[in-house]
Amino acid sequence: MPDSPYPEGRWISMVRLGPKSQIVIPKEVRELFGIGPGDVLLLMADRERGIALVDPSEYAEVIDKTLGPPPRRPGDA
Known about the structure:
Oligomer: single chain
Order of helices and strands: HEEH
């Protein structure tokens, strides 16, 4: 993104909750992280530290240790 006013790999933006309390991730951020419709993000929230959306694969080991492995769904091999 050569037109970005921010250092490479960074972006800041205000977002507004819509009528269904949803937010839109700005196009520039979606492009920066290569995310699109149907992708899954992990939402982490802490009242004092805020909200973060991250790639769940980066935290799979921590999630498994904390919550145990995900339950198997019918049809899973």
